[in-house]
Amino acid sequence: MHKTIAELSNDLHAKKISSVELTQQFLERIKKLDKTLNSFITVTEEIALQDAKTADAQLAKGQASPLTGIPFAQKDIFCTQGSKTSCGSKMLDNFISPYDATVIKNFKKAGTVLLGKTNMDEFAMGSSNETSFYGPVKNPWNTDMVPGGSSGGSAAAVAAYLAPGATGTDTGGSIRQPAALCGISGLKPTYGRVSRYGMIAFASSLDQGGPFAKTAEDLALMMNVMAGFDERDSTSVDHPVPDYTATLNDSIQGLRIGLPKEYFGEGLESNVAKVIEAAIKEYEKLGATIHEVSLPNTTLSIPAYYVIAPAECSSNLARYDGVRFGHRCKDPIDLEDLYKRSRSEGFGSEVTRRIMVGTYALSAGYYDAYYLKAQKIRGLIRRDFIDAFKNVDVLMGPTTPSTAFKIGEKTNDPISMYLSDIYTIAINLAGLPAMSIPAGFVNKLPVGLQLIGNMFTEARLLNIAHSFQTATDWHTHTPEGF
Ligand code: GLN
Q1: Following CA atoms 418, 274, 443, 149 in sequence, which dihedral angle do they give, to the nearest 10 degrees?
Q2: Which are the contacts of 415, defined by CB distance < 8 A and separation ≥ 6?
Q3: Is 150 a catalytic residue?
Q4: Which of 10, 19, 85, 436 could form a Cys-Cys staple with 180, CB 3.0–4.6 A?
Q5: Any atom of ligand 1 within 6 Å of the Cβ of 52
């Protein structure tokens, strides 16, 4: 298997390799292999080599942190000072960010290397990476297939080892679903755990940044850098940040696993179900006990999400008006023409659809019927989880109902596309942490096991995932040719 972040960190600290050498190796892999995958929008070669030199100096002085000198890819939704931050949209194709997102700042402080910015669905709206202005990303396990979305570029880059780790954001599943479809590990933290400052907003009450890597251990190392209170984000939570690596090896003897019966019913492909059942058996062998639980409002999660997320996006995306930054149409005749043409030229069709749905749902006379109702449903969904966690420590089930689907297969059927997040969306509505880890394969395509925890139990989730990865080797498989 390609080396993990933990292994690369040991090599760097033992001076077996320099950060410049390591960075060059990844830049070469990107040059050679990303023509096929299209996982990067921008490769920041110069910045990367400069970062690597700085890191080598820190390593030489013995002032290095565990991640000093490690190259990372950042989703193109995080603002990076001085380089393009497009959010996958024509609207921001010309946008050079004047400041760093807090997440980027934290990675810088840790001495890491910025390899580049990864491809994504436009403004993080999508489940397949096909809505990107920069073209679809291919799944390294089978390049006819989607990598999932919206953080598909990050997931494909890590799966193909164009970066040992990457960031993503998850509003309704965009870390977990692509992690599952690309056969890697991904964590969506508790809402408020990772700063949203400088992370371009889609649906502010749902968006949350998190890490992708091959292993849970690597995710823990990344969380040590990413998590924490940020006074610049009013929804950031001032809650103690543990050392996420400290409890990785704790015993999971006696762990109570809840299986939500709604996650194993109609719509779940039978081969995927078999892989998940085998993974649960593995947990039993490790000393866990299994309990059936119910999340009765699961079927309401997609309808509620597709009112709340578009409503918030219609408000967040109002700032792209052609005036201050982003795309501006040529020769507007008046202000209205400037707004109209800049927006219709700058936004793709999925983003436009969401803005229209959201504007409708928030309009006078419809607010109570749609937005308010959806918020009430959100309360019910949260209650389901609170009740479930009275009797179990963690919930498990499939991350997605099927493995990766073909590029183009669902583009004309938004509802079937929306259904690929059926097992992930409720978690965002409830604000809980959850992750996806590789659990096996169906027809050579990866299957992800989802682990859902109670508020701020990321360290426990990582421990539970790490125990599985100590006993199995699904996370070590790599796609042929990469
Ligand atoms: N697929 C979902 C959507 O299109 C979730 C996207 C996300 O998590 N960013 O909205």
Answers
A1: 20
A2: none
A3: yes
A4: 436
A5: no
Cβ of 421 closer than 6 Å to ligand 1, yes or no, is: yes
Q: Which atom of ligand 1 is nearest to the CA of 309?
A: 10
420: helix, strand or coil: helix
Residue 128's nearest CA partner among 405, 355, 351 is: 405
Q: Are 211 and 225 in contact (CB under 8 A)?
A: no
The minimum-distance atom of ligand 1 relative to the CA of 173 is 8
- Under 8 Å between Cβ of 449 and 437: yes
The Cα–Cα gap between 378 and 361 comes to 16
pLDDT digits (tens, 9 = 90+) for 348-364: 999 999 999 999 999 98
CATH code for the domain of 145: 3.90.1300.10
Domain enclosing residue 52, as ranges: 1-482
Nearest to 112 by CA among 37, 8, 256: 8
How far apart CA 418 and CA 422 sit, in angstroms, is 8
Note the helical H segments in 110-212.
152-159, 176-182
Give how many domains the chain has, as a whole number.
1
**β-pairing, 165-169 with 209-213?**
antiparallel
Is-catalytic flag, 174? yes
CA pair distance 86, 117, nearest whole angstrom: 9
How far out from the chain centre does Cα 127 lie? 11
Question: Which protein residue's CA is at the shortest distance from atom 4 of ligand 1?
Answer: 126
Tell me the average pLDDT of the chain.
97
pLDDT at 1: 61
- CA distance linking residue 253 with residue 188, whole number of Å: 25
Distances (CA, A) of 463 to 239, 246, 436, 467: 19, 9, 13, 6
Q: Which residues are CB-contacts of 99 (< 8 A; sequence separation ≥ 6)?
A: 79, 81, 198
Find out whether the beta carbon of 88 lies less than 6 Å from any atom of ligand 1: no
Q: How far apart are CA 69 and CA 244, in angstroms?
A: 20
Q: What is the pLDDT of residues 254-291, one digit of tens each?
A: 999 999 999 999 889 999 999 999 999 999 999 999 99
Phi, psi for residue 451 in degrees, rounded to 5? -115, 125
Query: What are the Cα distances from residue 3, in Å, to 135, 161, 162, 476, 477?
Result: 29, 9, 12, 10, 12
Name residue, tokens 């968006």: 207
